[in-house]
Queue: 2 jobs
Job 1
Amino acid sequence: MSVHIAAKKGEIAKTVLQPGDPRRARYIAENFLEEVKLVSETRSILYFTGLYKGKEISVGASGMGVPSIGIYSYELFTEFDVDTIIRIGTCGAYTDELKVFDVLNVNNAASESTYAKYAWEIEEEILPPPGHIFSLLNKTAENRSLNLIPTTIHTSDIFYRKSQEIPEIAKKYNCSAVEMEAFALFANAQYLGKNAATLLTVSDVIPTGEFISADQRESALKPMIELALEAAMN
Ligand code: ADE
């Protein structure tokens, strides 16, 4: 048992799908997996393990932000021998060239966060997804004729801010969208020699104010969830 995940050794699969929201983890487990078992509910951060087309997969939440995904992804990699984490989240687009419902595969996450530096002495402020899962997702999307957009994003510690200006780091690296977790996930995977990727569905377009409503979210996220599950089969 680890500090924040109450599952026993062997109860978590080698590949984990990681949404931010525990209720989304439950939705995926109940609607896409068979023979599902709830393996941890510490702090109501739910983890489930089940079968997708016969293959064992786990799905569990990261919570919101760099510290939270930093903890959960580290414990999954180190305490449960997880090989691959696919984050499945939402993001805000900085540009109206992206539309709500677009699905992005993060090819670089830039951040002002000091997480990578102070956790692992990784000095870079922009990190790629470590391992082979990024390209496997691209190939899987191509086979499914899903338009998956490789994108450089900003991992921010801030959701609410005074200025409406695009933050400096996002301008510096030409980030098209913002979320709050990928950079820490990539830092952990890089340090530990594991595989990680981040798929994001655009939930809001910041310059136009367009957004996906709460009741559209479940169906909006379906293509991304199915893509992650299909890639996890390999
Ligand atoms: N996730 C979804 N929309 C976001 C936004 N506008 N900022 C940060 N994270 C987000």
Note: The chain has a mean pLDDT of 97.
Job 2
Amino acid sequence: ADDQSQRDLTDGFHLLIDALKLNGVETIYNVPGIPITDLGRYAQAQGLRVLSFRHEQHAGYAAAAAGFLTKKPGVCMTVSAPGFLNGLTALAHATTNCWPMILISGSSEREIVDLQRGDYEEMDQLAIARPHAKAAYRILHAEDIGLGVARAIRAALTGRPGGVYLDVPGALLGQVMDAAEGAQSLIKVVDPNPASVPSPEAIDRAVEVLTQAKKPLIIIGKGAAYAQADDKVRELVETLGFPYLPMSMAKGLLPDTHPQCASAARSLVLKESDCVFLIGARLNWLLSHGQGPGWGEKGGKKFVQIDIEPTEMDSNQQIDAPLIGDIGSVASALLEKMGGDWKQPDESWTGKVREKVQGNIEKMAPRLKNNNSPMDYQGSLGVIKDLIAENPDVVLVNEGANALDQCRSIVDIHKPRKRLDVGTWGIMGVGMGSAVAAAVETGNQVLAVEGDSAFGFCGMEVETICRYNLPVCIVIMNNNGIYRGDGENWGGGSDPSTTVFVKGSRYDMMMEAFGGVGVTVDNPDALRQAVKEAFKSRKPTLINAVIAEGAGKESGNIGNLNPSSVVAQK
Ligand code: ADP
Ligand code: MG
């Protein structure tokens, strides 16, 4: 082809990149390989930030976390079959958590795949993705790329957000078409996050129920954090004057030190409240489905719920006043209806809750100051609590069993969307992907508090963190094992127990292998010093924090979910 005809043509690679850029995508979380290696290179050449990971699952977790943090779809790109399946775990995780994400996977030749003739990485990826995604599309023709990307973006964002799969056969990328026609075929999605305004009747009904409540409680979920209506949510909570419980990733939407925060009196408020107002939180397993002894007398509560998804209502309990809409619009409408003379609940309730909160915080305080070596969870996390209070813009990433449960309850969060964790599935291995996304999307320092087991699912990504020189400090709560490090082989053989690791592992040396800073600490003072140093230098740092082997408990706070055998000999 001569120069003139080259200039007038575009191809699938460039149309896909142009379509993403036209819709404001700036970053791709990627693992290169056939057939998308050049797609990543061209995207980089066209000014996108393309971060390559060592394994697709972590690129996917990064995209999912980016979706939560930015209210725009996080984009992950993978190769066909095995790479696609690795990325699919993250896409399902994003969908489960109601976060917008797009998984773009290269795929093998349709004609061969569909006749099952045995292609390189043969797999009908579209069919496999569909049940795990909010939507799934395949693009077969270059002139449909604009449409496919637009459909993916709108599906990911509109209504309840979720993960969208976009299948890109390798042959599509090489297809050529006229450049001007190609440019015209692209679609810029208009208003992908439309306001969803509740009906006046729904607002009247909700205000009526809230007015009747004597012992009301608010539960704020990560949907409220995602909605980015921070000021409105705060105004609503403070005007209502109810005690509130933040779900783990809603921590910081109002500071955990807020006088209405009832986290330290969780059992009391769940049991004794007579009206629960859910704001972007589901009554799923994380809230015992709104039933059981922890929830007090059966039928003793009214429920009010804000959710963008109509079918979320009554999924576990009767919702007396459903409020369908986006949290910002619903909060505004409620505040308007409540007017200036809202009567806050009686001090006999709020005072009782506050007293319980203060009592429990005082009881905990000395344990957070203990200087044990090796450390326990309280002594080490007491240090992390102080450091986050001093540095409230740090994004805290947290996963593990005890490392998760203890950190969630001990470490206060002071600003919105500053905590990323295992989400709705309680998934292990999200830590490094989340840490990369947090650093890339916010530019802030990141602190990842990781159980040694959780870290094992994603530890190779420390190389990624070093390669992009990200301000990520990882603290491994190293108790030599899963739950605890002191388990024994129930069969008495010479193999270690199924739940223990090499004793005294030096995870810090993994970080040093890639040029980051590695430190081992076995007492709270040294931990404080090492984290401070990491925050100051902003260098990739891994602190191997030695925790007593027997410090944890089986499955952390959710041991009750383990089935138990009645016939076992052991
Ligand atoms: P948590 O685990 O913190 O309780 P969930 O993930 O269970 O939070 O619930 C989040 C809820 O928020 C989901 O039901 C989702 O539909 C809803 N949601 C997400 N974004 C919005 C929004 N902008 N407005 C209203 N509800 C939303
Ligand atoms: Mg452990």
Note: The mean pLDDT is 97.
